[in-house]
Design goal:
single chain; alpha+beta; 4-stranded antiparallel sheet; 9 helices; membrane; YdjM-like; transmembrane
């Protein structure tokens, strides 16, 4: 999630655990500590793909955060908060640090909760990376806690309760969408194929669906407010890695994205794109991985991340209308080239 959400979560957790000891200093400390795991963004692993894959790695691991919280508690007890019970400091530091990656795991990007074990990142993908409906109900009680100090802990608890209920709702919503997608692909050649489902920006009502299909993929939007549960699919070329051997970096990239990768020739460049993040033809994580040199020979190059460009202004109201159930504007949410709607039954 974004830094504001993580800071608000850290402050609320700290305030609740502190109880009667809650104060503005505790809230500020919780807010700061709640953003600490994201400091790994300053690390450079050598190329943009590695930076993407290894972000939310060791600094988000439960195997790292639990002992780190214990060390912080002992340190803080000795030098800054001698009047606090050690158990309470440990509970506060642990809760603030651990809730950060747990919240991140609800997003699409993926969080390596069990680093260094060789397990896939946890990516529930039930909330967008920025969601005001999660953050605002959490942020307002935290800000109020700075004013009504005698009720600070209770206010923090209220904020956490509301935000947690919203996360629970997101799990219900994605479950409804999963059932709808299964009904849509049942009896077609896409039945049993890998499926990605994720929320569109800033909400848990309108959902984006991607289904892999050999050298192409099918993308569609479905809203919980749709009167007709039928999904209009947009088939797009997925491409494939055509070289004799695949670099380990791209194998890691495919594992990180769970196979939702598009390879596409763009002029003299070959790009690899994470299909989970973005929508239609707008994807923020697209990388040049090979170039065509003299004699039309392809050569691997150090990855370079492409600028996805700005979001088209007309797509913002179109997204809102689509959220409200206006299925007729699906095509507006797709850049017109290489993108068209289709019916699975005809394939």
């Amino acid at each position: 999630m974004d830094s504001i959400s993580q800071a608000a979560l850290g402050a609320a957790v700290a305030g609740l655990v502190a109880g009667k000891r809650c104060s503005p200093k505790v809230l500020l400390a919780g807010a700061a500590l709640g953003t600490v795991p994201d400091l790994d963004v300053v690390l450079d692993y050598g190329d943009p793909i590695s930076n993407m894959i290894k972000h939310r790695g060791f600094s988000h691991s439960l195997f790292v955060l639990f002992p780190f919280a214990a060390v912080l508690a002992v340190f803080w007890k000795r030098f800054f908060a001698k009047e606090w019970p050690l158990w309470q400091l440990w509970a506060l530091f642990t809760a603030v640090l651990v809730t950060h990656p747990i919240l991140d795991s609800f997003t699409t990007y993926g969080t390596q909760l069990l680093w260094p074990l060789d397990t896939p990142p946890v990516a529930i993908s039930s909330v967008f990376i920025i969601d005001p409906l999660y953050t605002i109900p959490l942020l307002i009680p935290v800000l109020a806690a700075f004013i009504w100090r005698s009720r600070a802990a209770k206010l923090c608890g209220v904020g956490l309760a509301i935000s947690t209920l919203y996360l629970a709702w997101s799990l219900v919503a994605i479950g409804v969408v999963k059932d709808r997608v299964e009904e849509n692909v049942a009896g077609t050649h896409l039945e049993g194929q890998p499926v990605f489902i994720g929320p569109t920006p800033f909400n848990t009502v309108l959902w984006r669906v991607v289904v892999l299909d050999d050298n192409k993929y099918w993308e569609g939007l479905t809203s919980l407010l749709d009167e007709d549960p039928t999904i209009d699919w947009m088939p797009m070329v997925r491409g494939d890695w055509t070289f004799p051997s695949k670099p380990e970096l791209l194998t890691d990239f495919e594992n990180f994205t769970r196979g939702f990768v598009r390879y596409e020739q763009d002029g003299d460049a070959l790009t690899a794109t994470d299909l989970r993040l973005g929508m239609a033809m707008y994807h923020p994580f697209s990388f040049v991985v090979a170039e065509q040199g003299e004699n039309q020979v392809w050569q691997l190059v150090p990855p370079v991340q492409l600028d996805p460009g700005p979001v088209l202004p007309r797509q913002i109201p179109a997204l809102w209308m689509r959220l409200l159930g206006w299925q007729s504007i699906d095509a507006m949410l797709c850049n017109e080239h290489d993108c068209f709607r289709d019916d699975l039954s005809s394939n």
